[in-house]
Fold:
Amino acid sequence: MNRRSFNSLLAGTAAAAAVPSFSRPQESPNQAAFQPTWDSIERHTVPEWFQDAKLGIFIHWGLYSVPAWAPPTGELGKVDWDTWFTNNPYAEWYLNSLRIVDSPTYKHHIATYGKDFDYYQFAAVFNKGTQSWKPEEWATLFKKTGARYVVLTTKHHDGFRLWPSAVNNPHANGRQLSAQRDLVGDLTTAVRAAGMRMGLYYSGGLDWTFTSEPIRTRPDLMARVPQSEEYARYADAHWRELIDRYQPVVMWNDINYPRAGKISELFAHYYNTVPGGVINNRFGVPFADYTTPEYAKYDKITFEKWESCRGLGFSFGYNQVEGPDQVLPPGQLIALLVDIVSKNGNLLLNIGPKADATISDIQLDRLHKLGAWLDVNGEAIFGSRPWVRASATTPDGADMRFTCNRGALYVFFLNPVTGKALKIPSTRASEGTTAEILGSSSKAALSQSGSDLVVTSEGPIPQSYAITVKLHPAPDSLV
Structure:
């Protein structure tokens, strides 16, 4: 992808253990060897697998999964920034919220654990819970959901690592800052064995073991990025270790990067090590393979590749407080995926496992229902591309989306359907166009009513969160 303006929509000590050897992902390089210069790096293009994937699973799992608590304030972007950080609904921000005296999290922590309980003492509970974890069960679940790739949080802002790093934290001060089990490696093996691709998240911008002042305001966010040479070397070394050891097909950095970091060298090393890999837009440099709106999406077809990320509820990390009032209903989740895909995006849908690696019933319910819908309608999603328009409204006010795949047009009806006729406005069928309602055993006929294309089913239209009509060959748009 060519040079572009950085668009951040969030703003945007263990000894080395014996680790398995991970084979390099089977991809064909799309360029010759990259040099550590921006002119060279900007030749990189987004690989087809990422264009085709459409759905990934994001995983936030760490020490914050032990207290698993945050006030369910609201979604990012819908809460005033003046109150956001003090009342942060992101459970993975527990330590920062705890550092803000008299915040809801501070009061909860004191009442539950006592004022002398240090956050990093949660490591003992977390490490115990991970010992019985079976990563193959997660991989099976993600595969059934329809995910084509997985992105695991290897180190969040609290500095706790999910892999046995050989890079020592100079500010450990006796605290346990690494998981006892190689969680990154174990999940990488399971995900690839299940036929999916594995990507890794790393918080390169924030590490609260290198800072002591909490983030209270939006300007604080970038001001708290450690800028010492010491931290730059630390972050660089971690990213190189993750690249060399696990060959992730996604480099998902967060909250910028230290200015002294050797980013162009890091990017060149990554592209040369992982053919087919992609890098997100949160390094703070004017180059990325794709953009990452968070709890947000674009309102029109966007040529440059993008990926919307969000939790099923208000939080990425597991929050025991969240319930049906905070978690997306199945219909809204499916409509969200369809809308994003119609505009050239991917959905990176987050789950927050509990400390013992179990996944809450409400999250499981959403994943199962999304997977069941994709079993029927997946051909309209995976490998698709946008049509000449992303959306329309039926004559009776129902919401619609469009995708194209293998010469066919797919039309999604996002509202409940009544009757046997479906109208597609400003569309004219091509000669020989046939219609099929995915998931229906009834035949469908086409007719033209002025500028509307009408699909009529011989039998009842099946009930679904979103009805998909397949038209092949694709008809013409009249707008």
